[in-house]
Amino acid sequence: MLELISIIIPAVAGMFALTRQLHMLQQNSYYNSRYLSWAKENFGFKTIFSFFLFVISCSFISVDWFVLSIVSVLALIKIMHTFSFQKKAIKPLVFTARVKRMYVTAGIIFASLCVCAFLFENVASYLLIAVLVLFYFPGIVAVSVNLINAPIENLVKLWYIDDAKKKLRSLDEIKIIGITGSYGKTSTKHILARILNEKYNVCFTPGSFNTPMGVVRTIREYMKPQTEIFVCEMGAKNVGDIDEICRIVKPDIAMITSVGPQHLNTFKSIENIIKTKFELADSVKKKGGKVYLSTDNSYISEKSAEYDSVTYGTNLGSSYRAENITCGPTGTKFDVVYNDNRFTLSTKLLGMHNVINITGAVAIALELGISERDIIFAVSKLEQTEHRLQLKPFIKGATLIDDAYNANPEGCMEAVRVLGSFDGMKKVIVTPGLVELGEREYQCNYDLGLECTKYCDEIILVGKERSKPMIDAIATTDFDKNHVHVVASFKDAVAIMQNMLDSNYAVLFENDLPDNYAK
Amino acid sequence: MKTKVAVFFGGVSVEHEVSIISAVQAMHSMDKEKYEIIPIYITKDGVMLYGEKLGDIETFRRPSLETLKNEFEDVMITRDGESACIYSKKGGFGRRKPINSFDIAFPIVHGTNVEDGALSGWFELLGVPYVGCDILSAAVGMDKAVFKDVLSAAGIPVLPYVTFFGKEWATDKDNIIEKIESAFSYPVIVKPANLGSSVGISKAKDRRSLEEAVDLATSFAQKILVERAVTSLREINCSVLGDMDECKASECEEPVMTGDILSYKDKYISDSSSSKGMQTLKRKLPAEISEEKAKEIKDWACNAFKAVGCNGVVRIDFLLDTADNDRVYVNEANTIPGSLAFYLWEATGKKYKELLDDMISLGFKRDRAKKQLMFTYDTNILDGVGSFGSKGLKGSKF
Fold first, then answer.
1. Cβ neighbours of residue A375 closer than 8 Å, sequence gap 6 or more
2. ipTM entry
3. Would you list which residues of chain A are within 8 Å, Cβ to Cβ, of chain B?
């Protein structure tokens, strides 16, 4: 009897202890491999102590009262610990159907061990050891339950896909726009959805829900019966990924924003990337829909003739063209030109990539019957992203371009060019240069230094050591050394600017700035 | 998958029955392929009833509407996450499950306590998209005096008026009469400021009938409006459909009067056998007016619609002073007109089904535009302030 109780108690406590492990498994998107590397990182005193207690429990396995008391105390601690941890967690375990199914499987395992121990007394102590293993190391339960449930989860996934398809097909008047590209697809999606919103009920994949299951979830959770347009971002890491999403959503309109060497390690070659992105165009062509391609990307423009596509961008031959692009303290202004029409847009967003993305979104919006008046309004209301070429008022009435979160070399060069396009204003850059680029670091900073001499009036470099490559680059030009300042911290940079700035200055904060200085 | 439209009708209003007729008509005409209709009937004492049969006029053919409460579920509506949910008042264990939910609310109600923005305000609070005018435009449309003020500020012609409250009349009658008599000569029209369907309106030919008219009006409303009676007049009505972005006017109609002014009886009772509401009123449609006059009226109708900031379908009623070269005055607005003025739109070739479709789209459009605006800041000013106890806010940033 005592023996039976001493097996039931750890079994029940094991179910509670599982919570924390499932919690971590959930935060690792149910990947056993990711979960295990988390467990490895968190390997420490607790695990060793558990192992120690486990060995003691096993060595006294025949002394019922001893095992029972040690297990009872520990069970109580574990149960309490589970509750307090879930209460404190920033993002506690979400009891989804999947998690519930895992609890059920774990429950069956524990229960069958207990029942067996009751039926077959001769092996009871072995079963007790088995339960103790699971009790002391609940991670083992989590991983096995995850493995056991995998085939079921697969079926559930198929059911979800099927359900999403059914829901989508039940909306017979819905127009589906697929957007893909190596970069720019997320911002283009937001811009397009914002413009279409003036006339239609729009549903779009939120955040970066751009995998097949992310799209399925969007359809099932966010799509409403009154939805008229679905803007679907499609991401890819492997050949066939886009096709898989296309087979679910069957898009009517395709848009490819860019092709570049992203996820090259999984794609193997740039040809594979191009092929994958154009899976979207193939799917839409089959349905007789229109394909929108950016002409500002050489990989894409090579293919545009093949698809009888609608082109957009800054190039002269584009069907929808951005012209007369100017920047200033209020943002960017440009004309969209198509057929014989021309109209002017202004936006708070800065940067050539935004102009191109807006032009693409406008092309589709016009096709879907949004009036120029509505487009002008929606574009003027586009929201800036925090610390990404974000326009803000600065001290002494100067204008600040906050690009603090930009750490990629191409993006930094573009930011400097954006600053350069603020006609008639004095231009200041504040930057510590680029970091964590390995071998390329010196060359990238050198290039950035050269670019700054072309467009800036004042260069403020943060960090003596760090700014060396840029100083080297500036030394090769005839840029006036009196306008180069090297300071130890951003605080010092702000101090210099206190005496320098007036309302005719534009200041670019480039890369890695703590927020409090950007005010 | 169909869009769930909850049609709200009835309400604590003298125009309760008219609203039932308008709502049932509309529910019959709505596109059943596209919409799932959920009737929500508000009883005369403000209880909300739920049930499919409430969409059928036969349900309401009974000696007393009171008995409906015994047959239909008494519900409450609150917001749950993204949608507005309907809950039964009957209990259950734990957290209640909604019995239904809806995507958009469609109020088809007339008169005070509902059409005056009360219902719109409730939808705003629920955070659910809804059809028709918002709080302000509905409230302005309901109060005839405020409506005239807004219109005259926008340069739209209205008849001048004198206004006062029932209590002032009871205590300061002579002064008010003097004020009226110095402003206008008899006959004058006396109206309760916030009632529709001509309830409580009468014409006064002299001081004695003025007192009678005001006494009648004060039993319907607290605020009274008196204006010059246009003795030789024509009434012309025109409907407007749209929102602040764009709107268009319908055909004009001329209702046919049996007495001095178009009465409640004319509007709803004279052809009682069919109980079909505004659409059966005797009228000339289109009104027999010149093309220029029609255009003038339509333009003023659109201007009034925008000045008040309406949404959906509104009917604007005009007076033509035939003694003064058919001079046009805007008389009043109905922000939820009887029968939703569909007959005026059918005359322009728009089917009732399409009209309802347009109205629902406009409701969703306003909701989208509203969601683009900022209503909350991410920073919580209460965070970090510390306790509001003895030390209070002294030590803080405030």
1. A195, A198, A343, A345, A362, A365, A366
2. 0.79
3. 167, 170-171, 194, 197, 199, 201, 224-226, 381
